[in-house]
């Protein structure tokens, strides 16, 4: 059990990558708070995990919700060891000048402000316990941007830079901060990345990935498990591509 005795909060845990991470962490011995803006989805994942999980409705762009999410972990399980900032939002693939202001604001609230709020509310808990791990789910879009996703690309670039900056500042507190940069996968956001979900678009996406397929929640969960486990105890500031070679 690679996470035995650990307590993790996973945002966006009701579906996609977040659900995969939450379930894998639980299988490796962690107690997990599944946080999602969709309360029913969070409850479904927590129910699948069983008594070692709790579901919390949380809008990660709202300070009070993030505070309550952290308190759900400490209240139910007595501690917090791992925060996975996975919740994400994007605009539909298209010209950057056609993205409206409300959508732009929401992208940066969910993809960037959430990391700030997570730090504000989780770091004091981790610091008091003598350390922990923060894992930010960024994207290959922040490393090798795709056309038509300019504002999303920028938000994930910010997540990568925040990860490295946080890692430096929090290292004396024994808080490791890393990121994953997944390539597009079979999640609810795939049709937005493509602009339209057609066999031709999927073929184009797959053709840009040397290993020839999209990512899966299991791929991301495997990498997240490693970075959040004691096996990665000497890694911080690492932004790992989980992309089948796309960023080579």
From TrEMBL:
InterPro entries: NAD(P)-bd_dom_sf, Sc_DH/Rdtase_CS, SDR_fam. Gene3D superfamilies: NAD(P)-binding Rossmann-like Domain. One of its GO terms (molecular function) is oxidoreductase activity. Keywords: Oxidoreductase, Plasmid. It holds the Pfam family adh_short_C2. Belongs to the short-chain dehydrogenases/reductases (SDR) family. This is Short chain dehydrogenase.
